[in-house]
Specification:
It is a single chain. The chain is of the alpha/beta class and 248 residues long. It has a single domain (9-233), classed as NAD(P)-binding Rossmann-like Domain (Rossmann fold, 3-Layer(aba) Sandwich), CATH 3.40.50. It is built from eight helices and seven strands. The chain has helices at residues 18-29, 41-53, 68-82, 106-133, 146-149, 155-174, 193-198, 214-221, and strands spanning 9-13, 33-38, 57-62, 87-90, 138-142, 181-186, 231-233. It has a seven-stranded parallel beta sheet, sandwiched between helices. Helix 1 packs across helix 8 (214-221) and helix 3 runs parallel beside helix 4. The protein starts with 8 loop residues before the first strand and ends in a 15-residue tail after the last strand.
Length: 248
């Protein structure tokens, strides 16, 4: 039985834990070579060990996505080694402060925008030509329901995700006549460190694990998936815009 992502080259940010690690392991299990980006070397090595134990392969890239020059360098390194990139997953993010808009510290604001918004723009800038070299480039960005519901005290995180949605959907329109497909995934409530920080009184055992997004992320990354510009809720049917409540 052939693997769904056989020999695809996939770059995943925030790959040391949570959703990023789950997606990395799922992609590797489907035959992709995964490029894992995160700040923490030890945690990346743990994910790598799990991938290799199951016969997969990975390249580890310990880096801070706030170092925008390093993102440019990474694009050059990928070009030299593979000449293309098949899948880009923009997953890394920080929560920032949950507080009234007027109380958010400027340094916290800037860090959230650097990582949640600007880093993804820089990734597109660096990887666009590589995705176009693929016979089916796929860019998938992880968003949040907060980008649309805009709950009180969530202005920082919600606005960064709304900005990311706008960037990704614009990029989808710009590439619609190419082989590149660009889509957005809202994972929904998920057991993660970020969720625990946002909802400290919540029982994490009542939430689905990060692996619950894996099937959606695999499907969006497949060469045969042709839709673009979708905003999809993980686990929901993948349908054309406007035909189902799961896509907005």
């Amino acid at each position: 039985m052939s693997q769904r992502l056989q020999d695809r080259i996939a770059l995943i940010t925030g790959a040391s834990r949570g959703i990023g690690a789950a997606v990395a392991k799922a992609y590797a299990g489907e035959g992709a070579h995964v490029i894992l980006v995160a700040r923490t070397t030890g945690a990346l090595e743990e994910v790598d060990d799990e991938i290799r134990a199951k016969g997969g392969s990975a390249t580890l890239v310990p880096m801070d996505l706030g170092d925008f020059g390093a993102i440019d360098d990474l694009g050059g390194q990928i070009f030299k080694r593979w000449g293309k990139l098949d899948i880009l997953v923009g997953n890394a993010a920080v929560l920032g402060d949950l507080s009234p808009v007027g109380h958010i510290r400027p340094d916290v604001w800037q860090r959230a925008y650097d990582l949640n918004v600007t880093a993804n723009y820089r990734l597109i800038r660096s990887m666009d030509a590589l995705l176009r070299q693929s016979d089916g480039g796929r860019a998938i960005f992880v968003s949040s329901g907060a980008a649309q519901s805009l709950p009180p005290y969530w202005a920082l995180y919600a606005s960064t995700k709304a900005a990311l949605d706008a960037i990704a959907q614009t990029y989808a329109k710009e590439t619609q006549n190419t082989a590149v497909r660009v889509n957005i995934v809202n994972p929904g409530p998920t057991r993660s460190e970020m969720r625990a920080a946002a909802f400290p009184g919540e029982d994490p055992d009542q939430l689905p694990p990060p692996e619950h997004v894996s099937e959606t992320m695999i499907h969006l990354a497949e060469p045969g998936f042709t839709q673009t510009g979708l905003w999809v809720v993980a686990d929901a049917p993948l349908t054309a815009p406007g035909t189902d409540d799961s896509v907005h």
